[in-house]
Amino acid sequence: YESLSVGELANKLGREPSEIIKKLFLLGVMATINQELDKDAIELICAEYDVEVEEEIRIDVTDLEIYFEDPDSDEDEAESATEAIERPPVVTIMGHVDHGKTTLLDSIRDTKVTQGEAGGITQHIGAYQIESNGKKITFLDTPGHAAFTTMRARGAKVTDLTILVVAADDGVMPQTVEAISHAKAAEVPIIVAVNKMDKPSANPDRVMQELTEHGLVPEAWGGDTIFVPISALKGEGIDQLIEMILLVAEVGELKADPKVRAKGTVIEAQLDRGRGAVATLLVQDGTLHVGDPIVVGNTYGRVRAMINDVGRRVKEVGPSAPVEITGLSNVPQAGDRFVVFKDEKTARQIGETRAGEAIQEQRTEKARVTLDNLFEQM
Ligand code: GDP
Ligand code: MG
C-alpha cells in the first residue's frame, strides 16, 4: 500500500473513524475521514492498537491477523506469508502455599537442565527452559498466581498450560480453588500434580474426590483431567509429569513463526545499577536479535545484550524462549507487550508517544483524585 484514508484504516482495524480521528488528534494530527494517511501515521495508529504493520501486505493483531487487501495477491499467497511451526509450551505452576510449587520448579530444573548446558550457572530471570527427548518446555518461575493476575489484568496471555500442585496430605485449599478459577477464566488447560506422595499421610483419593467437586475429574473416573502423583522433594514422578505436559502441548498444536519480527510479553523487569533497565521477555512469536529496535510497553530502545536462562550471552532467541535484555530507555512492567520494529526511528517515535500518553494518563488520574478529594472535603 502507498497510503490509506482515515476511513479505510478504521475499517481495517474494525474501529469507528471518529475514534481514529480522535487518536490522531491526540498525536497532534488534525484529520478528516477522507484524509490520506502516510506510512508513519498508519504505523503510529496501528501501534496504538497493538497492531504491527508488516511489510507491504500484512498487519498483525495480538491474536487475530488481518490482511491488507492486495489486488495482486489471493488468499493462498497471504496464507503462505506465515510459516508457523511448532513451538515449546509455556507452563506455569500454581497451587496453595506450601504445597510444593518452588520445590517442583527446582526439581524439574535440576533433573532436566537443557542438554549441553548442564553445569551452566542457572540465572534467575523469571523463567527457564528444559529439554526432554529433544522437546523444549518453558517454565515461568514467577509465582503462578501473581503472573496470572498481573498479566491477565493487562490482557497478556502467556501461559499455554498450568500445573496445579496439590499436597496429598493436605488436599484442596483456598488457593487451590483460586488457581482453578484463574486457569479456567484464561482457558488454560490444567494438569494436576498430586504432590508429597512420599508422606505416610498422603491421601491421593481425597485430592481426586475434592477436585472432582471443582470440575476436575480424573480420567480414571471418566473425566478428562490428567492427574500425576509426584514427590517434588524426592524427584519422583517428574518424568511422567513432563511427558504429560508434552502430550497436552501436542494436542494444543502450539505454533509460531520464527521468521517474523519478534513480539511477546514482559515477565519481569527492574532497574539494575550497572546495566540500567533490565527486562525478562518471553518471545511469543518471531525471533528476537541483539540490535533489534523494540517498543516495550511505554518504553523503547534497541536490544543491547541478551542473556538466557543459564546465564549465557546469546545473539538471538526464538519462540517461547525467555531472555533477559538490556538497552531500554526505561523500566517496563510485568505483563507489558513488546514488539520489534524494522527501524529505530519508528520504535522511538512510538515509544515516545506511548510514554507521553502514559504521563498524560497519570496526570489526568492525579487531577481526578485531587478533585475527588476536594469534593469530599466540601
Ligand atoms: P510452595 O509454597 O508451594 O512453593 O511450597 P515449597 O516448595 O516451598 O514447599 C513447602 C514445604 O513442603 C517445604 O518444606 C518442602 O520441602 C516441602 N515439600 C515440597 N514437596 C514435597 C514432597 O514432595 N514431599 C515432602 N515430604 N515434602 C515436600
Ligand atoms: Mg514457593
Detailed description of the structure:
The protein has 378 residues and is α+β, with helices and mostly antiparallel strands. The protein contains 10 helices and 22 strands. Strands 8-9-7-10-11-12 form a 6-stranded mixed sheet, with helices on both faces. A 6-stranded antiparallel β-barrel has the order 14-15-21-18-17-22. Strand 8 (127-132) and strand 9 form a beta hairpin. It starts with a strand and ends with a helix. The site of guanosine-5'-diphosphate (GDP) has 15 residues, from helix 5.
Summarize the structure.
This protein is an alpha+beta fold. Helices cover 33% and strands 27% of the residues. The chain has helices spanning 6-13, 17-26, 39-48, 75-80, 101-111, 144-153, 174-185, 204-212, 238-252, 344-377, and strands at 4-5, 36-37, 52-54, 58-60, 65-67, 85-86, 90-95, 127-132, 135-140, 161-167, 190-195, 226-229, 255-256, 263-272, 276-285, 288-289, 293-296, 299-307, 313-314, 316-317, 322-328, 337-340.
The general outline is: elongated
Gyration radius (Cα, Å) is 23 Å
Largest sheet: 6 strands, mixed
Q: Total number of helical segments?
A: 10
Structural class category: alpha+beta
Poorly predicted spans: 55-80
Instruction: Average the pLDDT over all residues and give the rounded result.
Output: 82
Secondary structure: helix percent: 25-40%
Please report which band the strand proportion falls in: under 5%, 5-15%, 15-25%, 25-35%, 35-45% or over 45%: 25-35%
Give the ligands present.
guanosine-5'-diphosphate, magnesium ion
Strand element count: 22
